[in-house]
C-alpha cells in the first residue's frame, strides 16, 4: 500500500504528521469554534440544571455495516446514554486509538460519519485525542466518546423511579443492530433489509419531557448489549418490581426473526443502538406512545408490557401461545447453536 | 414467517391444548429426546400450559452436552498445537474439559479458534490458511453429520490437504436403547427428534415399539407441532397402544433421506462411543473410514483419548438420563451457571440445565 494512504506510527507522535491529521481530517469534518481552538481542554459555558456525564468505548467489528459504522455508534451511543437520564446532551469528546496501517480512506469515512451524526444531533465534538498503536496491537480503530449533558432541576429519571403499574413502551423493533453485526461476522447474506438501527434518541426524550406532565416519565433505558431482556432485568432489580411483557406485542422485523431462527438466537438478547425502553405512568401511556410514534426514530413504538408488584427483580414473558416463561439477563456472548 | 407463524398461533394452540387435556386420561411420562425440543418447550412457555398428569423429561439429545470430557480434553490438546486452527460450532466454545478449562480460555491464551456457521466455512478457512491444519470439530447427531460428510467429500474432491475433522459424531437409536434397558427409567413414550428423523426416517423407531412397547411420535419444533405430537402420545398411552406416528409430515418421511444416509456411510463407519453421563455405548458413534483417514484429525495428530472423571458434584449424567431434574443438582444455579458452566447441560443453549436456568423450571 502507498504509505501516504495509511496510518503510520508518526500520526500518533504529536508531531507534524499528527497536526496534519488534525487539520486535514478532523477539523475538516468536525469543525466548531471550541474544537478549532486546539487548546488542551474545552472550556464550556455554564448552564442551569444538573450535569450528566457519560463515557463509552466502541470496538465493533466490522467497522462498517448496513445502517451505520463505528463512528455513528460512537456518537449515538453516548448521546443516548445521556438522554436516558433525561439529559439534554451538550457536547462530546472523541478519543481515537488507531492501528498502524489503517487505511486513511476508512478513517476519513468514519470521521465523516461522526461529523454527520454530530450535526444531525446538534451535539458537537469539542475535544479529542488520537493515539496510534503498532500493527497487531489494536484492531483498525477503537473509539471512546464521553459526553456532558444538562438535566433540568425538576427531572429525575432512573430505574429506581419505576412504579407498579408503569407501562413499558419499546421505541421500535428489537434486535436490528445485533443481528446485522452477527450476520456480517458470520458471512451470512440474507435477502431483505437487515440494517443497524443506530440513531440518537435525545430528541424523542426531549419531546416526552416537554409534553408529558411532570413526574409521569419514570425510567428510560437503551437496550444495547444484552438486549431488551437484560435491560428489563436491570430495571426490575433496581425497582424491586416484576416486569411482565407480551411476546405478541414486541416488534421484531421479519428478517431479524428469520436470521435469529437460522442462527439459534433470541432477539430479546440482541443489541439495539437506536431504541429505548420508556416506563411511564399508566394514565400517560397513550399520550407517550402517540408522542413517540410522531418521531422518526420512534414511529414503530409499541406498548410491550407493564410493571407489577409480584416477585421483585423477575421478568416474565407471556408467550404467543399463552404460556409464560422467565426472562433472565444475558450470560456471556450469544453463541450460535449446532442444530 | 411461513412454516413458523402458523404453527405458533394462539388460535391454533388453544384448541390443541384443550384436546391434549381431554387426551390425558391417566398420569404418564414422556421423554423428549432432542435438545431443540427441550428449548422449544421452554421458550414457548409450554410447560406452564401442560395438563396435570403429563410429565415431560429431557433426554440425551443435546450433542454438545453428551460430548465426553475426554473428547473436550483431546480438542484442547489439539488447539494447543502451534500450526493448528480449530473451527467449531459456537455452543462448543465454552464447554469445559476435565480441568475446567474450555476453548474460550484456550483462545484467550492464543489458540487459533474460529466459530463457524457451516462446516463448509471451515474448508474456506483451510484455503485461507494453507500453513495451518484446520480441524473442524464434528459434534452432532444424524442431522449434522451429512453436512460434515459433504465437507469431507468436497475437501477430497478439491484436493484440500490441510483440513481434517475430529469426529465425535453420534447416532440416536443406540443411546435410547441403552436408556430403555435401564430399569430405573420409567417412561411411557418418546417425543422423537424431528430434525434427526428427517435423515433417519420415522421408521427408525419401529424397533423401540417392537422391543419395548413404547409409544413413539415424531414431532416438529413449533408449539402446534409439539402439542400435536403430545396429543398422539397421550392417545396411544391412554389406549394402551404403542406404534410409531409421524406428527411432522412436512419434513419427515418413513424412510428418511436416503441420499444423506448414503453420503454419511460413504465417509463414516459405526464405532463404540463414549457419551458424557452415559458411558461407552456400542456402535453409537461414527468414525471416519480408513479410505478417508487423511481427513481424520485423531489419526493425523495421533490423538489419544484419556479417560476422565466427571466434575465433583455435577449431576449431568443423571440429568441426561432423565432421572433427575436440574434443580436437584447441588451445583445448579450456584457454582454452575450459563456464564460459568461446570457441566455440559448448562453450557449448550439446548442443554436441559441451561433451559431450566434461563426459562425457569
For this entry, give a set of tags.
heterodimer, A: 339 residues, alpha+beta, 60s Ribosomal Protein L30, Chain: A, Phosphoribosyl-aminoimidazole Synthetase, Chain A, domain 2, 31% helix, globular, B: 361 residues, alpha/beta, Rossmann fold, 4-stranded parallel β-sheet, 15 helices
Report the order of strands and helices of chain B.
HEHEHEHEHEHEEHEHHEHEHEEHHHH
Binned, the helix content of chain B reads 25-40%
Helix tally of chain A equals 9
Number of helices of chain B: 15
Q: The CATH topology of the largest domain in chain A, please?
A: Phosphoribosyl-aminoimidazole Synthetase, Chain A, domain 2
Could you say which overall geometry of chain A the principal axes of the C-alpha atoms support?
A: globular
CATH architectural name of the largest domain in chain A: Alpha-Beta Complex
Strand content of chain A: 15-25%
Amino acid at each position: 500500500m502507498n504509505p501516504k494512504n495509511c496510518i503510520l506510527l508518526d500520526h500518533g507522535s504529536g508531531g507534524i504528521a499528527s497536526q496534519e491529521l488534525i487539520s486535514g481530517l478532523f477539523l475538516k469534518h468536525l469543525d466548531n469554534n471550541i474544537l478549532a481552538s486546539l487548546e488542551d481542554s474545552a472550556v464550556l459555558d455554564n448552564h442551569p440544571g444538573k450535569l450528566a456525564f457519560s463515557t463509552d468505548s466502541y470496538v465493533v467489528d466490522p467497522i462498517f455495516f448496513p445502517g451505520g459504522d463505528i463512528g455513528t455508534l460512537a456518537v449515538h451511543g453516548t448521546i443516548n446514554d445521556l438522554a436516558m437520564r433525561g439529559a439534554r446532551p451538550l457536547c462530546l469528546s472523541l478519543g481515537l486509538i488507531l492501528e498502524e496501517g489503517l487505511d486513511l480512506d476508512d478513517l476519513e469515512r468514519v470521521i465523516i460519519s461522526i461529523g454527520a451524526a454530530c450535526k444531525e444531533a446538534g451535539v458537537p465534538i469539542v475535544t479529542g485525542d488520537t493515539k496510534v498503536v503498532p500493527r497487531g496491537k489494536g484492531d483498525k480503530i477503537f473509539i471512546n466518546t464521553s459526553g456532558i449533558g444538562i438535566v433540568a432541576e425538576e427531572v429525575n429519571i432512573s430505574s429506581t423511579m419505576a412504579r407498579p403499574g408503569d407501562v413499558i413502551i419499546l421505541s421500535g423493533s428489537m434486535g436490528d443492530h445485533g443481528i446485522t453485526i452477527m450476520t456480517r461476522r458470520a458471512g451470512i447474506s440474507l435477502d431483505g433489509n437487515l440494517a443497524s438501527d443506530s440513531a440518537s434518541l435525545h430528541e424523542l426524550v426531549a419531546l416526552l419531557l416537554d409534553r408529558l406532565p411532570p413526574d409521569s416519565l419514570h425510567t428510560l433505558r437503551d437496550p444495547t448489549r444484552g438486549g431488551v431482556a437484560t435491560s428489563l432485568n436491570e430495571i426490575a432489580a433496581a425497582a424491586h418490581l416484576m416486569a411482565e411483557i407480551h411476546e405478541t406485542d414486541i416488534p421484531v422485523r421479519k428478517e431479524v426473526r428469520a436470521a435469529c431462527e437460522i442462527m439459534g438466537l433470541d432477539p430479546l438478547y440482541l443489541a439495539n443502538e437506536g431504541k429505548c425502553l420508556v416506563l411511564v405512568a399508566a394514565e400517560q401511556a397513550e399520550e407517550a406512545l402517540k408522542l413517540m410514534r410522531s418521531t422518526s426514530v420512534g414511529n414503530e413504538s409499541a406498548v410491550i408490557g407493564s410493571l407489577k408488584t409480584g416477585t421483585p427483580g423477575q421478568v416474565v414473558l407471556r408467550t404467543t401461545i399463552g404460556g409464560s416463561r422467565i426472562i433472565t439477563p444475558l450470560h456471556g456472548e450469544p453463541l450460535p447453536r449446532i442444530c | 414467517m411461513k412454516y413458523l407463524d402458523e404453527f405458533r398461533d394462539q388460535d391454533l394452540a388453544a384448541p390443541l391444548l384443550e384436546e391434549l387435556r381431554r387426551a390425558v386420561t391417566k398420569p404418564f411420562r414422556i421423554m423428549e429426546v432432542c435438545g431443540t425440543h427441550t428449548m422449544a418447550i421452554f421458550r414457548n412457555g409450554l410447560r406452564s400450559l401442560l395438563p396435570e398428569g403429563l410429565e415431560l423429561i429431557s433426554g440425551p439429545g443435546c450433542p454438545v452436552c453428551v460430548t465426553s470430557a475426554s473428547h473436550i480434553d483431546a480438542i484442547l490438546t489439539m488447539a494447543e498445537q502451534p500450526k493448528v486452527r480449530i473451527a467449531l460450532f459456537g455452543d462448543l466454545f465454552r464447554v469445559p474439559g476435565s480441568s475446567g478449562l474450555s476453548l474460550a480460555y484456550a483462545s484467550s491464551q492464543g489458540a487459533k479458534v474460529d466459530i463457524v456457521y457451516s462446516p463448509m466455512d471451515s474448508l474456506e478457512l483451510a484455503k485461507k490458511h494453507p500453513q495451518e491444519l484446520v480441524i473442524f470439530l464434528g459434534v452432532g447427531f444424524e442431522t449434522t453429520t451429512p453436512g460434515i460428510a459433504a465437507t469431507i467429500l468436497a475437501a477430497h474432491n478439491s484436493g484440500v490437504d490441510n483440513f481434517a475433522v475430529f469426529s465425535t459424531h453420534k447416532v440416536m437409536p443406540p443411546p435410547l436403547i441403552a436408556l430403555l434397558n435401564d430399569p430405573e427409567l420409567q417412561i411411557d413414550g418418546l417425543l422423537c427428534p424431528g430434525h434427526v428423523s428427517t435423515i433417519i426416517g420415522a421408521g427408525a423407531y419401529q424397533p423401540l415399539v417392537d422391543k419395548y412397547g413404547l409409544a413413539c411420535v415424531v414431532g416438529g419444533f413449533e408449539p402446534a407441532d409439539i402439542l400435536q405430537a403430545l396429543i398422539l402420545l397421550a392417545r396411544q398411552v391412554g389406549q394402551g397402544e404403542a406404534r410409531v406416528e409421524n406428527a411432522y409430515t412436512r419434513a419427515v418421511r418413513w424412510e428418511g433421506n436416503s441420499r444423506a444416509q448414503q453420503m454419511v456411510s460413504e465417509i463414516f463407519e459405526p464405532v463404540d462411543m463414549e457419551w458424557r453421563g452415559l458411558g461407552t455405548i456400542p456402535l453409537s458413534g461414527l468414525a471416519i473410514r480408513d479410505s478417508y483417514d487423511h481427513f481424520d484429525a485423531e489419526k493425523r495428530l495421533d490423538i489419544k483419548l484419556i479417560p476422565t472423571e466427571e466434575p465433583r458434584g455435577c449431576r449431568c449424567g443423571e440429568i441426561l438420563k432423565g432421572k433427575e431434574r436440574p434443580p436437584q443438582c447441588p451445583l445448579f444455579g450456584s457454582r454452575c451457571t450459563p456464564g460459568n458452566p461446570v457441566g455440559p447441560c448448562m453450557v449448550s443453549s439446548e442443554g436441559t440445565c441451561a433451559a431450566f436456568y434461563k426459562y425457569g423450571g
